[in-house]
Amino acid sequence: MADATIKIFSYLPNPRVWKALVAAQFCGITVTVAGDKPANLQNWLWDFDARELPPDERVEDSPHARLSKRGFSGTLYKTDAFLQAHPFGTVPAAFSEDGSIGIFESNSILRAVVRAAENDHGLYGKTGNEASRVDSFLDAALVLAREAQVYLLSINELSQVTHERMSSAYEFYLSGINRSLATSDYIASDQLTIADIGFVCDVSQFLRERLLEDSLKQQGFAVISKNMEREYPLATAHLKTLGAMPEFSTHLGDYLSKVF
Ligand SMILES: N[C@@H](CCC(=O)N[C@@H](CS)C(=O)NCC(=O)O)C(=O)O
Predict the structure, then answer these.
(1) Among 115, 190, 206, 241, which residue's beta carbon has the most beta carbons within 10 A?
(2) Does domain 128-259 fall into CATH 1.20.1050.10?
(3) Residue with the nearest Cα to atom 11 of ligand 1?
């Protein structure tokens, strides 16, 4: 049986999509990606067959017009079929090869990629318990990722509460990862798993705050990850080592060199 393929629609580049692309590279799965710059996604029809809409189809009385909810403003154009496959209406939005199944949440799309592989090279653990431990780390990372989403989306008009919540989620997650790496070369087991892939992509996304230092300073806030190298040396080294591997760097490009 040949490996299945997965199709993803998203704004690009998107660290949440990197997760699936890196995993696909390790297991030889074909992932096709459609999308555009974040600001252009409001000109697209969100669908399995996503496409850029001509101006005369981008109208408020379009049957596909929906109020954006998170990370976008104004109107987005989503088909009924898209919302049936993706009830939360978010991107990245993945689909099975024939479009019949929608897979959402970037960690679930990441899992879908490895599950689609004939040989997953142990990326999802070698036993049931190892797979559950991988899930434990992915679930823990989701808390960081959600706080980072709120934080980064509001970084130019930050509240004290948002900054504190982000700091707390960052410390909680990074200290756990650092502790885990004190006894193992990889986060969830003795080999690379999707917990490591998720870690690289989620933390990379959060580290964008380093590029926004001026705005943070102007508002009287510190860069939360300022001392990451000193405070979480194992986690930092792991991120840099994995980020330099071709399976990662092909998709991350020079992003990490900008934040470190
Ligand atoms: N936790 C989700 C986050 C997805 C998400 O919130 N996407 C936002 C953009 S950042 C979205 O698609 N919003 C659609 C809308 O505003 O209607 C994941 O990892 O995939």
Answers:
(1) 206
(2) yes
(3) 90
